[in-house]
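We were asked to recover a plausible sequence for a given structure. The inputs and outputs are reproduced exactly as logged, with field labels preserved.

PROBLEM: sequence recovery
POSITIONS: 339
GIVEN STRUCTURE:
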């Protein structure tokens, strides 16, 4: 037998210990349960969502599946009555994710692997998946399926996602309305959001920015309007974070009479929730100012938000003589930015 010099014995022990630690760590990582999606149905299709689980005994777990439809919220699938999906002995699973009429146009799925003894929490139009899943689940994944997220609209050096109801029978919030991608376009005059009607069916438009910009100054230049908006129409410019209910970090400028043609005011600044005292400021924009175009500026600060609306389109500092309305809110509902 070969004998090691005394000086090397400690080194060999260290190397062996280090090797054992590495192997144990690798095995622990490899044994972590996983959910894998193997077949993601195409946007607008009625195909099932399919996949498999790995690194766990399939007989000990089942799957809780939820889908998100913009403007409607999160829904458990296949149904409220049958919210859990069984895992086959080989680890494969399949979920019918189109049991609701508007389901083919869902834009996101969330899947949670639960111990077989845990029930799958219900969700029907909730702003987020049930929060208790974060502690119940052995593992989870989210999968985006939004063609407008994959192919965003370029405007003002940023990328914007177009909202799509998917079908005229799928009215979604806000409104509810039918949001039609064909009602959004960009040309040399800027971004266009149209309301169009056809045989009594009215379609609207919305885009959203897939970024968290946080505190700072936001400025929107609004092209001249030939006439005041129809009392049923709303132009809304607002911050929004779907992951932050119940008020979603929402700060609004809205141009509308909200269905009341006799309302003397046609615009408002809002910190949500709008129905709390001091969170809403309504005012009037004269037609001559609408026809001159508008500059909307919101300055979002820690604990404070300042709104201002000016006549005309201003890239620099607007003149006080062009000021139409301004308002500051430093109340308890001014939100913090998301991440």
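RECOVERED SEQUENCE:
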């Amino acid at each position: 037998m070969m004998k090691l010099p005394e000086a090397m014995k400690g080194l060999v022990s260290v190397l062996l210990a280090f090797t054992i630690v590495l192997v144990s760590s690798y095995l622990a990582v490899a044994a972590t349960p996983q959910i894998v999606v193997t077949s993601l149905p195409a946007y607008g299709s009625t195909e099932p969502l399919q996949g498999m689980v790995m690194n766990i005994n399939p007989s000990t777990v089942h799957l809780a599946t939820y889908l998100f439809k913009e403007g409607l919220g999160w829904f458990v699938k296949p149904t409220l009555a049958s919210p859990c999906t069984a895992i086959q002995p080989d680890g494969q699973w399949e979920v019918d994710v189109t049991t609701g009429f508007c389901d083919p146009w869902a834009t996101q799925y969330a899947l949670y692997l639960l111990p077989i003894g845990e029930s799958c929490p219900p969700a029907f139009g909730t702003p987020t998946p049930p929060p208790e899943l974060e502690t119940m689940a052995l593992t989870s994944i989210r999968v985006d399926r939004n063609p407008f997220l994959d192919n965003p609209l370029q405007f003002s050096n940023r990328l914007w996602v177009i909202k799509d109801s998917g079908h005229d029978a799928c009215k979604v919030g806000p409104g509810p309305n039918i949001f039609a991608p064909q009602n959004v376009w960009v040309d040399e005059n800027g971004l266009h959001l149209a309301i169009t009607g056809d045989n009594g069916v009215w379609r609207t438009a919305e885009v959203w920015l897939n970024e968290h910009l946080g505190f700072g100054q936001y400025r929107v230049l609004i092209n001249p309007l030939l006439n005041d908006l129809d009392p049923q129409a709303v132009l809304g410019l607002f911050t929004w974070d779907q992951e932050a209910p119940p008020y979603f970090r929402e700060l609004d400028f809205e141009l509308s009479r909200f269905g009341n043609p006799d309302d003397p005011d046609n615009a408002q600044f809002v910190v949500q929730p709008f129905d709390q005292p001091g969170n809403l400021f309504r005012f009037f924009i004269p037609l001559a100012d609408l026809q001159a175009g508008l500059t909307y500026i919101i300055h979002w600060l820690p604990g404070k938000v300042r709104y201002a609306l000016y006549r005309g389109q201003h890239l620099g500092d607007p003149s006080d003589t062009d000021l139409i309305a301004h308002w500051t809110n430093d109340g308890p509902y001014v939100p913090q930015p998301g991440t």
